[in-house]
Amino acid sequence: MDEINRTSPPATKNGTQWEVQLNAIPTPEWLDLFKVSGEGSVTASPQRVVFDRNVLVFKSDESRVEHWVQSIDKWMASTNARAAMRFESASRERAAREDAETKERERIRQLNERFKDL
User: Whole-model pTM above 0.85?
Assistant: First the structure.
């Protein structure tokens, strides 16, 4: 699973709504993890971040933009780490399931071979 990261500094058109470009469009699963990625503060919270394809949007006055960006970077790092762990876990589960299915097919093949002449 590819990490989602910022590719631009924050930019604004009105001084209150800020946009940050991302390197990819987050998956729905990644977005769910982001929303619970960490503690927010009175001024910055992951639940208040809006994603529009590969753009992240937040509202802030200019005095708090740096705090927002630091928080967003922390939340993204946490989300990327948890998403990677989930992906690895799912891959291991899939591999174990496929191994069990292969063993079961081989067992069935051996049973059929054993009793083919009856």
Answer: no
